[in-house]
Design a protein that fits this description.
The chain is of the alpha/beta class and 384 residues long. It has two domains: 270 residues, 3-Layer(aba) Sandwich (Rossmann fold); 98 residues, K homology (KH) domain (GMP Synthetase, Chain A, domain 3), CATH 3.30.300.20. The chain is 31% helix and 21% strand. Helix 10 packs across helix 12. The protein is globular and about 60 Å long. It comes from Drosophila lebanonensis.
Length: 384
């Protein structure tokens, strides 16, 4: 009965213009939890228990969040909008984020640090898309430095939304001692409350406080890193996770739910010294952000797999009288691809340059003069 009344309240909130709501799996029902243990007697970590309190005399508070998920679920858009500052390049194609980015929100005495990671991929996907091997280690490094794991899941994709990807399950198993949140993104595309409720029940294995309904709780098994490469039959793969601390419904694009999620993270921050100065939004250097922004727009403007064959290199970076002057060279494997990028009379290249310039102005908060050049077989074209 308690669960039913809680879900009813959640639906009432959602019904008001797709308002954000949160389902807590730690405090909804005291009947399913005793002293923080599951029915099997196995301790399930909570966010509050995982971070040491360094003392009330320290006024600064902080929380570090590793944001993970499969490619193209909206991780970078989520981070940009929750800190209200563009620090992560975005595009409509997969694998826009090629390396980990650190985003920082400092508000009052609290600092939230978000680690944006490349999409979780298998070794097979790395070979298919010619990705760097760092894709396999970037998320591990982020989680090891985080207090909590935030799993972003695309609720709009009817083909994949009913199960967590095997790489996500594998990661959660490997770091089961870390508290975790499930963030269902893109809820603005869904009109049915029933779909969302069913989705929550499916992805969390219909659990409260980490206890399976109708089944005895069990210890989280150790991750088998070779399981995905061997090709586990789909019927035997796990597709849900029973140990999420909370479930959030958000739209990173429209901003619905982000303020409440931000408040939740701030409330759970613990007393500790900030890792970064209060005035910065990212630790990434401007030069890297410029190159990543060019690559992101090439992904948007070019068809199919063509942009993944390109290499971007910074040629020049300087700042004078509050204006950033910079130049990026795009290395093309063939002259045909170079002509495709440039377009007729360099029209497409100018469009890309204008779009990237707009992104960089938003990112740096100052005027930017950008030149993008292409090169193939020694021939070089310019657009500024």
């Amino acid at each position: 009965m308690m669960r039913c009344s809680f879900v009813a309240r959640a639906l009432e909130q959602y019904n008001k213009q797709y308002k954000f709501f949160l389902i807590s799996t730690r405090s909804v029902s005291a009947a399913t939890q005793t002293n923080g243990t599951t029915q099997a007697g196995k301790s399930v970590p909570t966010l509050a228990d995982s971070i040491p309190d360094s003392g009330a005399e320290n006024k600064q508070r902080a929380l570090h969040v590793a944001v993970i998920g499969v490619p193209n679920v909206g991780k970078s858009t989520f981070i940009n909008n929750i800190i209200n500052h563009r620090v992560c390049p975005t595009s409509a194609k997969v694998h826009t984020t090629r390396q980990s980015n650190t985003a920082i929100l400092t508000t009052g005495q609290t600092q939230l640090v978000f680690y944006d990671t490349p999409g979780l991929v298998t070794q097979r996907e790395i070979r298919k898309h010619h990705l760097e091997q760092s894709f396999k280690s970037a998320y591990r490094h982020a989680i090891q430095h985080a207090d909590i794991i935030a799993v972003v899941h695309d609720a709009s994709n009817s083909w994949t939304r009913k199960e967590l990807h095997p790489t996500v399950i594998d990661t959660l198993k490997a770091y089961a001692y870390r508290p975790s949140l499930l963030i269902l993104n893109k809820i603005d595309t869904l009109k049915s409350k029933r779909v969302l409720l069913d989705l929550i029940k499916t992805l969390t294995n219909d659990t409260l406080a980490g206890v399976q309904r109708g089944k005895s709780g069990s210890c989280v098994p150790k991750s088998d890193s070779d399981e995905l490469e061997k090709g586990t039959p789909l019927s035997k793969r796990e597709t849900s996770w029973s140990h999420f601390d909370n479930v959030f419904l958000v739209s990173a694009l429209t901003g619905n739910g982000l303020h409440d999620l931000q408040d939740y993270l701030i409330d759970n921050a613990k007393a500790r010294n900030w890792r970064f100065e209060g005035g910065i939004h990212t630790t990434n250097c401007p030069q890297d952000l410029i190159v990543e922004s060019v690559m992101a727009r090439l992904l948007d403007y070019l068809p199919q797999e063509i942009p993944y064959k390109l290499k971007c290199q910074l040629e020049y970076y300087g700042e004078e009288k509050s204006v950033i002057y910079t130049s990026v060279q795009v290395q093309c494997p063939t002259a045909r691809i170079e002509r495709l990028i440039c377009g007729e009379a360099n029209g497409r290249l100018r469009q890309i340059t204008e779009r990237v310039t707009s992104d960089l102005v938003e990112m740096f908060g100052q005027a930017v003069s950008l030149t993008i050049s292409t090169v193939s077989g020694g021939k070089k074209d310019l657009s500024d």
